[in-house]
Amino acid sequence: MLSLVISLCSILLLIVCVLVGVAFLTLLERKVLGYVQIRKGPNKVGYMGIPQPLADAVKLFTKEQSNPLISNYFPYYLSPVLSLFLALLIWVVTPYLFNLINFELGFIFFLCCTSMGVYTVLAAGWASNSKYALLGGLRAVAQTISYEVSLALILLSLVFLVGGFNLMNFMVYQGYTWFLFVAFPLAFCWLASSLAETNRTPFDFAEGESELVSGFNVEYSSGGFALIFLAEYASILFMSMIFVVVFLGSNINEMTFYLKLVLISFVFIWVRGTLPRFRYDKLMYLAWKGFLPVSLNYLVFFLGVKVIISGS
């Protein structure tokens, strides 16, 4: 009973830390984008604009909630909540060495949660009863499903190498060299697929402001918008963490792990400040004719390597 209470308290503490991390990731993004565009970011609230995310959260959650009269009420309200719930739930696979749930099938759980995230975006787009929101939702579903295929195959290649779905294995197996050097092209494919999976620039078709006003979340304001926003940034942080665990093998109890996590999160922001949006057909071409053959070839290669090693 005591161990269960300690585990629950640890998970609660982890969720609080993730939410604080998300708050300051938004501040980092606004500062970095400011300097990319040769202007100052938030610098008026408090010292150097540091409390800005807290002020934004208070503003969003105290705004009047408006709801479209012809929206489908329950999916409209529940999809942002479910989106944030999934984005936070997925963090329990983090390979901590103490007082947290240790998943033997952590990667399968990760793929299940990311696949479930598709339904929240589709429900948000459909339930808003707006043509722009529906188009954004449909785009997001096609895009996410396409890139999940390459994500799963890249993971499977590395799972063959380490011989298990537990994230702990990656920390053990990368004691001597990082998988970034072993599978350099796969790391780039994973990073690009992560950008597409989290609906980030240059793959932000679900929120294409130039043609869809604001995409699938166009009818959301105040609390609902804040929850969608939190879920997106929690996913960015999680994908950065997975990239570090899988390719930049660092012990999660070392300070360097968190520096690498911040660096990968910075890459997400840097890409947003640098690259224009893709054309939609090129997005699909990249997924099915670019990443899929590369990940399949690596899968066969690593499978062959594993068979040769086990045979000898």
Walkthrough of the structure:
The protein has 312 residues and is mainly alpha-helical. It has one domain (1-311). It contains twelve helices and no strands. It has helices spanning 2-36, 52-62, 73-89, 106-127, 131-162, 168-173, 179-182, 184-197, 209-212, 222-247, 255-274, 280-311. It is globular. The mean pLDDT is 83.
Task: Give a quick set of tags describing it.
about 300 residues; mainly alpha; globular
Question: What is the topological layout?
Answer:
Elements: H1 2-36, H2 52-62, H3 73-89, H4 106-127, H5 131-162, H6 168-173, H7 179-182, H8 184-197, H9 209-212, H10 222-247, H11 255-274, H12 280-311
Short description:
The protein is mainly α. It contains 12 helices and no strands. The protein has one domain (1-311).
